[in-house]
Amino acid sequence: MEQPFEMRSGTSDGPPVLEVMGEIDVATAPFLKERLQEMVLAGNATIIVDLLGVTFLDSTALGVLVGGLNACRDAGGALHLVVSEPRILKVFDITGLADVFPIHASVADATRSAGR
Amino acid sequence: MMSSPDPLARSSSRPDVVELRLPVMADLIVLARLTTATLAARAGFDVEEIEDLRLAVEELCLTLRPNEQQGTLHLEFRQSDDDIEIACTLEPGPPGLHRHGANGLPLPAPEDGLSDRILEALVDEHGHDTRDGNPRAWLRKSRTRVQG
Fold this sequence. Notes:
The structure holds two protein chains of two kinds.
Chain A: E1 6-11, E2 16-24, H1 29-41, E3 47-57, H2 59-74, E4 79-82, H3 86-94, E5 103-104, H4 107-115
Parallel strand pairs in A: 2-3, 3-4, 4-5
Antiparallel strand pairs in A: 1-2
Chain B: E1 16-23, H1 30-42, H2 47-63, E2 71-79, E3 83-92, H3 114-122, E4 125-131, E5 134-142
Antiparallel strand pairs in B: 1-2, 2-3, 3-5, 4-5
């Protein structure tokens, strides 16, 4: 049974954390896009997106994350990703986006990096 | 990107053929991934190869830009002794019926170039052509042979 798509907003000692679980695909990516837009419009220039619970991610998901990164940069911040699953990291590697996003192995690492 | 007049007709041994027709709806494309995973497992692909194929078939469908047209995605899966071949044809349908998924949100536009980069990395061959005037995307991936 595949894990259903789910998002949870939380806080860390630093920027807000958006935890995403399940599969981010052509059907669920619009929900992620909507949530990221809401967070940036609410005044969050820097956001941490926790992808530790993500089991599948396609090019539409990557496009949404790139859009979120651009929106954060326009607001003077950054979009930090938390990824540790090799299968998910592989998608960032083969598309060249591993060099575009700040990618961290844990939320704690992302929080430390975002606070610098 | 490679092209072929009929890439699905090149298997040396007689392949099994499975067909799947899906209305263009975002939340139904998961069925293409599920079918791919099932057939790849049946053909002896390992776990990593199956995951590669799951992503590849999603990108294959997205390269046809189904967000811009209503209709049906017609997938054909052929497996032979050593490889699996998947073709996806976007067949036109009546306007307005299948544009949105059950969540009410439109199919997002694909990211230019990302699907091709993913396919390039995950499969042995892929390309585009037409069938009966309709756009078709196809891929082929060989199975890693375990040395005995």
